Amino acid sequence: MSALLLWLIPSLLQFATVILLLTIANAVWLEVGRILTRTTESGQGPMVSVLVPARNEQRGIAGCVQSLCTQSYANTEVIVLNDSSTDSTGEILERLSARYSNLRIVGGSPLPEGWGGKNWACRQLAQEACGDIMIFTDADTLHHPDTVSECVYDMTRSNLGFRTGVVGQQMITWGERISVPIMNWSVITFFPSWLLPSLGFGSLGAAHGQFMAFTRHAYAAVGGHEAVKGSVLDDIGLAARVQASGTRWAYRDLSRRVSCRMYTGFSEAWNGFGKNLFAVFEYRLLPYLFIWTYILAMCTVPLVCCFHPDPVMARQAFATAVILLAQFALVFGISGMPIGLAMLYPVHATIWWLLAMNSLVSAATGSAQWKGRQVAGGRLRIL
After folding, report:
1. C-alpha to C-alpha distance for 28 and 33, rounded to whole angstroms
2. Which residues make Cβ contacts (< 8 Å) with residue 37, sequence separation at least 6?
3. Residues 6+ apart with CB under 8 A from 311
4. What Rg value do the Cα atoms of the chain yield, rounded?
5. How does 220-232 read in b/e, with b if 16+ C-beta sit within 10 Å?
6. Pair 261, 60: CB distance under 8 Å
7. In angstroms, rounded to a whole number, what is the distance separating the alpha carbons of residues 322 and 324?
């Protein structure tokens, strides 16, 4: 055991240092907290279609739609697709449509063979859209009044075909607080946002499905949602196609403009992450097990080894723990999440490892479900 620790602790210290530096670089590049100058309030720029798929979203659909229909950028249409909801989503949308002239409600068609539910809904929405810019956003999001205006300004001035980024996460219960940060932490920690948009490797795209903006040309060029119709990670799949196509794109800090309450508790988070964590790794078993177990070890073993009788090992372990605390605090700050939650990073890592193992089991057994629909998995690979 001592020989293993003599190798492991320096390795963890080096890795923790690297991810802290990477996170600092991301914080600088994402221009955290920066608010762009918005376009004219009259909305004389390109028409924007904001597209919202909604299935059993009675909890948050009213707030989402109201925040979108009252944008400062006037040249905006909001289209919501009611995807066979069985709760009061439809009634809420009908009431809202009578209040907002820029809101249009569309009824979803039956789900075809081989399509994921959200992908099919987004494809139907794209067919209804009239805008030169199409913004796909989730029904549980809330938007600052200048969200669309800022997006148009940024895409126009930077000549972007695709724009996405870090979305602020609302976390009310402790079940959410210990689970939901896994998403933003993973991206901000390991995704070099300053580098990858300039590279041509299609597999290195990244996106956040809670806010994705395309020019109409860029969306058509990558094949739209039909190109990723069976994927549980439509956002990452589309981003990879954007990257491979050579389209100019950007990953921004959107946390001060867009927020989302993904789940209402740990049970929802358990099921939600269960359907897609393993898919991020393309169902590759050994890399998946190694990475999540290494992250768990990095966040827990040094805390125990701070009390090791070997003073060198104890100092290295303490340094690792401090660096990780700083790294988690920085990620949480970038994401607009309570920085104090960083103190619980060993708990986060343990819960995330359990979420990852649940995703593996769900994929292997074909038991993953979301909103009453079976979620298709992929082919299990060893490497």
Report:
1. 10
2. 153
3. none
4. 21
5. ebbebbeebbebb
6. yes
7. 5
Please report where in the chains the tokens 């055991």 appear, as a residue: 1
Spatial separation of the C-alpha atoms in residues 215 and 46, rounded to whole Å: 10
- Residue 42's closest CA among 134, 147, 129, 149? 149
Distance CA 112, CA 85 (A): 17
Transcribe 14-40 into DSSP letters.
HHHHHHHHHHHHHHHHTTTT--PPP--
How wide is the angle at C-alpha 183 spanned by C-alphas 353 and 144, nearest 5°?
155
Neighbours of 369 (CB within 10 A): 13
Q: Which of 27, 31, 85 is nearest to 60 (CA)?
A: 85
What was the pLDDT predicted at 270? 94
Q: In the chain, where are the structural domains located?
A: 2-27+281-374, 36-167+208-264
**DSSP SS3 for 250:** strand
Three-state DSSP at 64 gives helix
How far is Cα 102 from Cα 66, in angstroms, rounded to an integer?
A: 11
Rounded Cα distance between 174 and 262, Å, is 14
- Burial of residue 353 (CB within 10 Å: 0-12, 13-18, 19+) is middle
Give 264's DSSP letter. S
Amino acid at 356: A
pLDDT digit string, tens, across residues 172-193: 999 999 999 998 999 889 887 6
Single-letter residue type at 118: K
Residue 80 has pLDDT above 60, yes or no: yes
242 contacts 250 by C-beta, under 8 angstroms: no
Tens-place pLDDT, residues 107-128: 999 999 999 999 999 999 999 9
State the fold for domain 36-167+208-264.
Spore Coat Polysaccharide Biosynthesis Protein SpsA; Chain A (3.90.550)
51 phi and psi angles, rounded to 5 deg:
-115, 125
Question: Residue 311's CB: how many other CB atoms inside 10 A?
Answer: 8
For range 374-381, the mean pLDDT: 79
Q: What whole-number distance in Å separates Cα of residue 149 and Cα of residue 217? A: 20
CA pair distance 199, 29, nearest whole angstrom? 16
Say what the pLDDT of residue 129 is: 98
Say if residues 224 and 138 touch (Cβ distance below 8 Å).
no
What pLDDT score does 207 carry? 83
Amino acid identity at 14: Q
Q: How many CB atoms lie within 10 A of CB 318?
A: 17
